[in-house]
Each structure stands twice: as C-alpha cells, then as structure tokens.
C-alpha cells in the first residue's frame, strides 16, 4: 500500500463519466529523454505509437531490454497531466509538453488517481489501457537538476509519492491530435491502485 497514489478509492461513481482533453502529443524514433511535440500520433493496438522508440510488443526500455528482453511492453504510451507541468513551474522548473518523455499531455483528468486497468478513450477511436505509474529515473536530473526528488519523494507517512505520469498499452487503433477529447472508462469491480511498471 505504500506505493499507491491513495486516490483510486475516491468516488468511483463520479469519475466514471470523467472527461478531459489532449493538450499535446509527442513521439521520437530515437531513445532520448524528451520527445518533440508533433501534430498527431497514430496508436497501434499491441504495439504502441507508430514511429516511437518505445513501441513494440516486448519491452523497449533500455535497461530492461538488456536484462529481460522478452518482457511484455507495459510502457507503450506515457501520459502526463498538464496540471503537473503547472505545479512544476510553480516549484521553479520550466517544463513543456513532451519534455518529461511523455507521448500524451492531458488536461482535466487526475491520471495518478486512476485505478489499474482504466481505459482511456482518446479521440474517436484510440484506446489506451492504464498499466501503472512511471518510476522517475536519474535521467530526469540530467534534464533538470533536482527534478527527480520533486517527482519522487517520501511523504510524512513514509509513503513513496510518484508524480511522473502513468503508462499504458494500446488496445484499439486510432489517430490522436491535440484538442482531442479524453474519456475515462473505469474497470469493473474493486478498483486496484497503480503500481510501478
């Protein structure tokens, strides 16, 4: 329980109809920390984002590909809320969409409060299933010194708090552009908190 966001149990009935917006979309065909913003991205079920270095059925993470190359790719899509970028700006970190390595920057959705297995409907066709939280790594401090401890810290109750966004897999094809509607479909049954993937 120490590594969960703690909000997955909140008013599930209210969030069942929650909608938000796609603020920006990003992709990069090379493994770099930040991803450039593009006009649209094409999501492919079971694969990820066309032309993105993290696309594939098996892991594309540089460390995991060396240690467990057959591992299923649960990190095909990275999403970050624009609300986090605003919080970081207030804390002295100038971060724009795509710069944390996310593919989709959103607005209006508490991404970290979503339970495991939530489906995010993006635009008219694409669907991403949430697999877990991103665990910030040391690369974040190379991008902005001191940012890692802002995105991952221990709270007063001894719980690890992660704020670097969520990960997911593509379960339905579609093209997504900035301005697209984002609709939340919560999973049936008892909500399970997000772990780290």
From TrEMBL:
Query: By its UniProt entry, which InterPro entries does this protein fall under?
Result: MoCF_Sase_C, MOSC_domain, Pyrv_Knase-like_insert_dom_sf
Q: Where is the composition biased (Polar residues)?
A: 1-21
Under Gene Ontology molecular function, one entry of this record is: molybdenum ion binding
**Region of interest (Disordered), residue spans:** 1-22
Occurrences of domain MOSC (ranges) = 35-185
- Per the record, a Pfam family? MOSC
Q: What name goes with this protein?
A: MOSC domain-containing protein
Species: Cryobacterium adonitolivorans
């Amino acid at each position: 329980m120490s590594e969960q966001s703690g909000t997955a149990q909140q008013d599930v009935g209210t969030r069942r109809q929650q909608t938000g917006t796609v603020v920006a979309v990003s992709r990069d065909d090379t493994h770099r920390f930040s991803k450039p913003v593009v006009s649209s991205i094409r999501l492919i079920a079971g694969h990820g984002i066309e032309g993105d270095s993290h696309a594939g059925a098996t892991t594309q993470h540089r460390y995991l590909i060396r240690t467990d190359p057959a591992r299923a790719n649960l990190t095909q899509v990275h999403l970050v809320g624009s609300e986090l970028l605003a919080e970081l700006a207030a804390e002295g970190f100038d971060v724009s969409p795509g710069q944390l390595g996310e593919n989709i920057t959103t607005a209006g959705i508490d991404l970290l409060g979503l339970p495991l297995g939530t489906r995010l409907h993006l635009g008219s066709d694409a669907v991403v299933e949430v697999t877990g939280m991103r665990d910030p790594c040391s690369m974040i401090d190379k991008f902005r010194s001191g940012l890692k401890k802002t995105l991952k810290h221990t709270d007063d109750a001894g719980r690890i708090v992660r704020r670097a966004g969520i990960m997911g897999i593509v379960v339905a094809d579609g093209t997504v552009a900035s301005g697209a509607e984002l609709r939340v479909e919560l999973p049936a049954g008892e909500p399970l908190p997000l772990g780290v993937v």
